[in-house]
């Protein structure tokens, strides 16, 4: 009974914390000076049709670097606590149903294709490296559910994660040396506005982020899967 009342009390306090967001929130009538600069100068300066995600990569590139570092720390932590010498399938584990296997065979290439599309076209359409990486990781999860005796090559994951991280930082350094700052994409030709090969180095940076995020999430999933066996 005490536990029930404690849960109700915590939920009530949580509602009180969120209530001002509903009662006192007022929409902005005009953009802030920083937002005006981004919206006014961003498309011409960056050459990207999708300004929102391009701002995240360039103007706020250090924030994105921090997010990638946090995800790397999470993956390393999971790998440390769930590390194992070798991976053995659990005895008596049932095979996946024929429906799941058939659905996976049909959906897996489509999910991978959409994931690659999302992070390679982040400068043109909504999406980007994080979203594309999550889609790729979800495809791997689906594959592992459908093939319970399958395993993920940890060597490939580690090399993919490491190389994408190294090249990501290298792209940032090139922006610092050849353009106006760290992760400044304008050290590569801007290309034709609205085309795939445009927006300078933004598509390359997004692709590297997508590979890094995808490999790190797959590594977390693989470690948790092995730890549960």
Main attributes of the structure:
8 helices; 229 residues; globular; single chain; mainly alpha
Compose a concise summary of this entry.
69% of the residues lie in helices and 0% in strands. The chain has helices at 2-23, 33-46, 51-57, 61-81, 98-120, 129-146, 154-178, 202-228.
Protein model, in words:
This protein is mostly helical. It has one domain (44-85, 93-228). It is built from eight helices and no strands. Helix 6 (129-146) runs parallel beside helix 8 (202-228) and helix 7 packs antiparallel against helix 8. It is globular.
The pLDDT mean sits at 85
Instruction: Tell me the count of domains.
Output: 1
The residue fraction in helices comes out at: 55-70%
Specify Rg, calculated over alpha carbons.
22 Å
Distance between the termini: 36 Å
Structural class: mainly alpha
Low-pLDDT parts are: none
Tell me, what's the shape? Answer: globular
Number of helices: 8
Order of helices and strands: HHHHHHHH
Instruction: Give me the count of strands.
Output: 0
* Largest sheet descriptor: none
Beta-strand content estimate: under 5%
Please outline the helices and strands:
Elements: H1 2-23, H2 33-46, H3 51-57, H4 61-81, H5 98-120, H6 129-146, H7 154-178, H8 202-228
């Amino acid at each position: 009974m005490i536990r029930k009342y404690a849960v109700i009390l915590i939920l009530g306090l949580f509602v009180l914390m969120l209530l001002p967001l509903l009662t006192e929130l007022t929409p902005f009538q005009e953009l802030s000076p920083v937002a005006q600069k981004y919206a006014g100068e961003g498309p011409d300066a960056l050459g990207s049709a999708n300004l929102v995600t391009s701002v995240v990569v360039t103007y706020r590139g250090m924030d994105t670097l921090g997010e990638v570092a946090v995800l790397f720390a999470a993956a390393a932590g999971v790998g440390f606590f769930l590390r194992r010498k070798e991976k053995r399938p659990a005895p008596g584990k049932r095979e996946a149903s024929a429906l799941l296997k058939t659905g996976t065979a049909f959906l897996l290439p489509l999910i991978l294709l959409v994931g690659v599309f999302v992070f390679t076209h982040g400068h043109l359409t909504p999406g980007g490296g994080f979203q594309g990486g999550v889609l790729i990781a979800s495809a791997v999860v689906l594959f592992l559910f459908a093939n319970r005796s399958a395993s993920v090559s940890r060597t490939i994951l580690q090399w993919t994660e490491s190389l994408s991280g190294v090249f990501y930082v290298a792209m940032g350094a090139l922006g610092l040396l050849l353009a106006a700052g760290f992760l400044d994409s304008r050290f590569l030709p801007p290309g034709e506005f609205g085309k795939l090969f445009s927006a300078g180095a933004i598509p390359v940076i997004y692709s590297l982020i997508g590979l890094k995020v995808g490999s790190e999430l797959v590594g977390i999933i693989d470690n948790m899967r092995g730890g549960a066996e």
